[in-house]
């Protein structure tokens, strides 16, 4: 054979090999379990999410933690497992999740505790989970800066609520795991306008969270929003709907400054969904990347008010709840004909070292000066907002002093493949641009990005956000900055792509 002929044969062989389909992924039969726990405080509490101290005057509606257990098995044993949890709080610390895992372990010995992942809905009308008297916390534990001096009498202390919170969620996880039965899943995409970009940009390039848009120098919004609603439905063996995961890009903070306990618009969504689909329906809400979004309107306020009045004087929460319920109904109609009980299931846990946002010398000097000014007034005499600002300034100074030796944060990230869809968690109030990059580059048909999950590291802004400045993009609001955000996207996309190889 001539050299040319041999080369042609080799090329044909290569083409044939390239044309061969990838080996089919390992599939398993699903077992699914659900449970929910009431995490409403039994006493007045300090509410988390604002600079001023708010002590709850009543319970407007319950706080809920919802757990979905999924396991897949084939003839060789367990493919993988997960317990996905959602809870109606503003955020929680990694130590809280570790406590939950430790409580679950003896009650569910066949569940790997590392396979428990949890996200917060980010309601601003739920208890604070950090005690102001806690000492020795790490400067990267940024939740320890947003704390309140809680009266000793007549108010449930944060440390006591944390015990209730962890114990009841552990109950829900163990119950969901024990409740596993053969079942199926289906998924769909729908749309609902809930979140809006909340960072107004002006002609000088500066940005402001909730900035006025009727100013003559208003230019645009810093980024976009995402009306997509990712839906995962679960079914029993009789093909009856048992629950739904609803993932959308908006924190639940419509009534964020209220002085009562509330799950915010997710309560209204649950009520509306159960009206339509039965009281036994489990609803597991997830907040997608939405660090720069909120349900608040920065324009069209009067038009929206007119719309709600014409619908029967709906509250903003009720309107959002109905939008979510309509999206679920739309998705359900499309998904109920494609229920799968055997499919690929992969769940990976990653510890990704992300570079911290460096405190500049100028920021350090400003923080030290602020500390001195607050302390000269007397820390015990500071009002609630000033007390938090003092703690923030003290934290910035402490971060500057350790950043050369401790320049990375070990960040827990979960990636899952369930059939043709994916899920990816992160512990940030993640600016939407990062979430869109993940979704656009993911190999999955749909990607459920879940923020404020398994830890809480406050905001992660983009370069554009940092350039614009203001709250959520300033050093006091960030442990990780844009460099870490880009790396988070790359590592997450790499992990997702590996699940489709």
Plain-language structure description:
This protein has 3 domains: 151 residues, no CATH class; 161 residues, no CATH class; 44 residues. It has 11 helices and 22 strands. The strands form 6 sheets. Strands 1, 4, 5, 6, 7, 12, 13, 14 and 16 form a 9-stranded mixed beta sheet that branches. A 4-stranded mixed beta sheet has the order 17-18-19-21, with helices on one face. A 3-stranded antiparallel beta sheet has the order 10-9-11. Helix 2 packs across helix 3 and helix 4 crosses helix 6.
What are the key terms here?
single chain; 501 residues; alpha+beta; nine-stranded mixed β-sheet; four-stranded mixed β-sheet; 22 strands
Strand content: 25-35%
Task: Tally the helices.
Answer: 11
For the secondary structure, the number of strands is 22
Shape, principal axes of CA atoms: globular
Q: Helix proportion of residues, in percent?
A: 25-40%
Mean pLDDT: 95
Unreliable spans are: 6-19
The profile of the biggest β sheet is: 9 strands, mixed
Instruction: Please report the distance between the alpha carbons of the first and last residues.
Output: 37 Å
Using only C-alpha atoms, the radius of gyration works out to: 24 Å
- Class from helix and strand fractions: alpha+beta
- Structurally, the number of domains stands at 3
């Amino acid at each position: 054979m001539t050299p040319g002929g041999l080369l042609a044969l080799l090329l044909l062989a290569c083409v044939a090999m390239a044309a061969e389909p990838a080996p089919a992924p390992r599939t398993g039969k699903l077992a699914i379990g659900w449970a929910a726990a009431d995490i409403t405080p039994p006493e007045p509490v300090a509410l988390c999410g604002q600079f001023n101290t708010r002590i709850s005057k009543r319970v407007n509606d319950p706080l809920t933690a919802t757990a979905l257990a999924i396991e897949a098995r084939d003839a060789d044993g367990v493919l993988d497992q997960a317990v996905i949890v959602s809870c109606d709080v503003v955020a929680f610390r990694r130590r809280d999740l570790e406590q939950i895992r430790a409580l679950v372990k003896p009650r569910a010995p066949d569940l790997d505790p590392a396979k428990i992942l949890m996200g917060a809905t980010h309601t601003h009308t739920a208890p604070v989970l950090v005690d102001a008297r806690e000492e020795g916390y790490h400067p990267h534990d940024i939740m320890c800066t947003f704390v309140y001096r809680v009266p000793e009498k007549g108010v449930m202390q944060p440390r006591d609520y944390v015990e209730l919170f962890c114990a009841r969620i552990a109950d829900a996880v163990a119950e969901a795991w024990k409740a596993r039965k053969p079942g199926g899943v289906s998924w769909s995409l729908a749309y609902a306008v809930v979140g809006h970009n909340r960072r107004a940009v002006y002609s000088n390039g500066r940005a402001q969270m909730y900035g006025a848009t009727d100013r003559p120098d208003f230019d645009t919004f810093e980024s976009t929003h995402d009306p997509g609603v990712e839906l995962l439905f679960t079914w029993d063996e009789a093909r009856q709907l048992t629950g739904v995961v609803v993932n959308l890009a908006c924190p639940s903070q419509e009534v964020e400054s209220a002085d009562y306990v509330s799950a915010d618009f997710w309560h209204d969504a649950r009520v509306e969904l159960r009206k339509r689909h039965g009281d036994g329906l489990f609803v597991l809400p997830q907040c997608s990347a939405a660090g720069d979004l909120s349900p608040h309107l920065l324009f069209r306020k009067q038009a929206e008010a007119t719309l709600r009045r014409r619908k029967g004087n709906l509250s903003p929460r009720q309107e959002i709840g109905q939008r979510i319920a309509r999206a679920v109904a739309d998705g359900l109609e499309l998904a109920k004909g494609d229920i799968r009980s055997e499919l690929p299931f992969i769940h990976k846990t990653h510890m990704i070292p992300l570079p911290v946002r460096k405190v500049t010398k100028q920021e350090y000097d400003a923080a030290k000066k602020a500390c001195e000014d607050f302390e000269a007034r007397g820390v015990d005499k500071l009002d609630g907002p000033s007390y938090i600002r003092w703690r923030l300034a003290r934290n910035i100074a402490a971060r500057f002093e350790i950043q050369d030796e401790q320049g990375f944060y070990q960040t827990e990230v979960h990636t899952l493949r369930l059939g043709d869809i994916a899920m990816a968690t992160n512990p940030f109030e993640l600016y939407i641009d990062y979430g869109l990059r993940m979704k656009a580059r993911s190999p999955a048909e749909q990607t459920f990005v879940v923020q404020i999950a398994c830890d809480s590291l406050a905001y992660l802004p983009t370069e554009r956000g940092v350039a614009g400045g203001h709250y959520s993009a300033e050093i006091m609001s960030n442990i990780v900055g844009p460099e870490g955000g880009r790396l988070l996207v790359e590592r997450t996309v790499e992990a997702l792509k590996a699940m489709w190889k």
